[in-house]
């Protein structure tokens, strides 16, 4: 089994607060891994460590079987929290800024615009985009460096049902293009539709990690784990 990302007893602590506790994650190449958990469970902190935004307090991150290093960020794209867009620029101009900044070929702009279905936005400024279009532009920016791993933190937040459906169909295509996706969400039904594997995190710990089974009641499993953790106050 080839894992693109593996963590071993990963911890993140802020003073006395343990945000992530002994997390051992296994993410297969060219798959979609859904990280589920209630708000405040520690999902974003974990994804920020995987994308190099913050450092772990202890534990290891392996990328393609080797200890993660900052050079690996060349193969990792991430959209954490708000899409990092300039609202006074068009979609193409937003991407052009990044190609210049990171010395990437300009040809990549058309490729990623097509991937996220934003080729027809013309001179429309990004500030006038719908929330769904802004999310897709954020993903386009994350895809510019042709990543092997794409990390998305709550990508459907604030989207209407049409935007959620469009984003779901887009994400489902990525493994076929050789891109592994890790996405966090608290919307179980959406993750169930696209993920190959799921992990359930609650109170900073990873309590469950398995391939999605067709006969499993994910909502029931999720609620059982979250209630159990809440009652044990671990």
Written description of the protein model:
With 234 residues, this protein is of the alpha/beta class. It is built from seven helices and eleven strands. The protein has a six-stranded mixed β-sheet with strand order 7-8-9-4-10-11, with helices on both faces. Strands 1, 2, 3, 5 and 6 form a five-stranded antiparallel β-sheet that branches. The two termini are 32 Å apart.
Task: Describe the structure concisely for a colleague.
The protein is α/β, with parallel strands linked by helices and 234 residues long.
Summary tags:
234 residues, five-stranded antiparallel beta sheet, six-stranded mixed beta sheet, P-loop_NTPase, 11 strands, ABC_transporter-like_ATP-bd, alpha/beta
Total DSSP helices: 7
String of helices and strands:
EEEEHEEEHHHEHEHEEH
Order of strands, widest sheet:
7-8-9-4-10-11
Helix-strand category = alpha/beta
Number of strands: 11
Please give the structural blueprint.
Elements: E1 3-14, E2 17-23, E3 26-28, E4 32-36, H1 43-50, E5 58-63, E6 66-67, E7 76-79, H2 91-102, H3 107-115, H4 131-143, E8 149-153, H5 161-173, E9 180-185, H6 188-194, E10 197-202, E11 205-211, H7 218-232
Parallel strand pairs: 4-9, 4-10, 7-8, 8-9
Antiparallel strand pairs: 1-2, 1-3, 1-5, 5-6, 10-11
